């Protein structure tokens, strides 16, 4: 993993830091694993804008990623590590012994030619998916299920990882990337190793246009708005804008929005850090 700092040939390149793509082995995606991806521009089914600052961006095709890893006890060979425009992590194309090809989220250290597998009989090695009951305590894991058979929903972003802390009865204690410690059923699958592309956090876009390529539109500062447009708007001169809050009045910066009556609260041992 590496990053490259560009020479300032243009103003937009002066502070630009780009990914070295050392671990990416091909730029040609597998056609059978591609699907069309429609842009919503932040509009719902009625055409009303429900999410601001969305729209435009480069056209993409979705890579069908196998988050469930339900093809168990069948070895697969890693054919290539690829860039995925729809996520921060790199993806690996694996080919099973029966010839089927699938994309999976690549872990740090996953190499072309390596064999990966999933299931209770898989070894606890990088890239293998095992139930939490079969993973040694203290292991770094990622791509964790929350319900058995649901598919990975936690620790899927670039460079993220969780740690298996303990097991008791039908629950395992997992420390998540947010700092939260929670109980997860031991028959949920998790993948060994941290997610690839850990240098993603070091990247610097260098110019505003790059945000537009990613489908992000300009954002107006709330304190520059009028009172009719935002709770923090208005005031004479450069008024601070009052307490930080969102456009619909929900306080920001530390205000907890999780419901106190949520049924899954009993599985959370320690809340995430502020």
UniProtKB/TrEMBL annotation:
Gene3D superfamilies: 2.30.30.30, Nucleic acid-binding proteins, Ribosomal protein L2, domain 3. GO terms for molecular function: rRNA binding; structural constituent of ribosome; transferase activity. Residues 124-251 form the Large ribosomal subunit protein uL2 C-terminal domain. One of its GO terms (cellular component) is large ribosomal subunit. The keyword RNA-binding applies. One of its GO terms (biological process) is cytoplasmic translation. Residues 34-58, 221-274 are annotated as: Disordered. SMART domains: Ribosomal_L2, Ribosomal_L2_C. Keywords: Ribonucleoprotein, Ribosomal protein, RNA-binding, rRNA-binding. Coiled coil: none annotated. The keyword Cell wall biogenesis/degradation does not apply. Residues 42-118 form the Large ribosomal subunit protein uL2 RNA-binding domain. One of the primary rRNA binding proteins. Required for association of the 30S and 50S subunits to form the 70S ribosome, for tRNA binding and peptide bond formation. It has been suggested to have peptidyltransferase activity; this is somewhat controversial. Makes several contacts with the 16S rRNA in the 70S ribosome. Belongs to the universal ribosomal protein uL2 family. Part of the 50S ribosomal subunit. Forms a bridge to the 30S subunit in the 70S ribosome. This is Large ribosomal subunit protein uL2. The lineage of its organism: Bacteria, Pseudomonadati, Bacteroidota, Flavobacteriia, Flavobacteriales.
């Amino acid at each position: 993993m590496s990053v490259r700092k560009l020479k300032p040939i243009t103003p937009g390149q002066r502070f630009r830091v780009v990914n070295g793509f050392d671990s990416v082995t091909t730029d040609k995606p597998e056609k059978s694993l591609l699907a069309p991806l429609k842009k919503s521009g932040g509009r719902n089914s009625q055409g009303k804008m429900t999410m601001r600052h969305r729209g435009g961006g480069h056209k993409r095709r979705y890579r069908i990623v196998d988050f469930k890893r339900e093809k168990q006890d069948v070895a697969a060979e890693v054919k290539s590590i690829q860039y995925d425009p729809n996520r921060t992590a790199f993806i690996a194309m694996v080919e099973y012994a029966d010839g089927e090809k699938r994309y999976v989220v690549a872990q740090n250290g996953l190499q072309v030619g390596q064999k990966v597998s999933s299931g209770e009989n898989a070894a606890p090695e990088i890239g293998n998916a095992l139930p939490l009951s079969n993973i040694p305590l203290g292991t770094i894991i990622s791509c964790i299920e929350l319900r058995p058979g649901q598919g990975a929903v936690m620790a899927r972003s670039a460079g993220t990882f969780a740690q298996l802390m303990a097991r008791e009865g039908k629950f395992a204690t997992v420390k998540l990337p947010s700092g939260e410690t929670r109980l997860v059923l031991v028959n949920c699958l998790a993948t060994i190793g941290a997610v690839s592309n850990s240098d993603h956090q070091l990247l610097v876009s260098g110019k505003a246009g790059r945000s537009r390529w990613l489908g992000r539109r300009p954002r107006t500062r709330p304190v520059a708005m009028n009172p009719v447009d935002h709770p923090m708007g208005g005031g004479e001169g450069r008024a601070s804008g009052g307490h930080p809050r969102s456009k619909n009045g929900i306080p920001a910066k530390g205000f907890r929005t999780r419901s106190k009556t949520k049924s899954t609260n009993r599985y959370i041992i320690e809340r995430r850090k502020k």
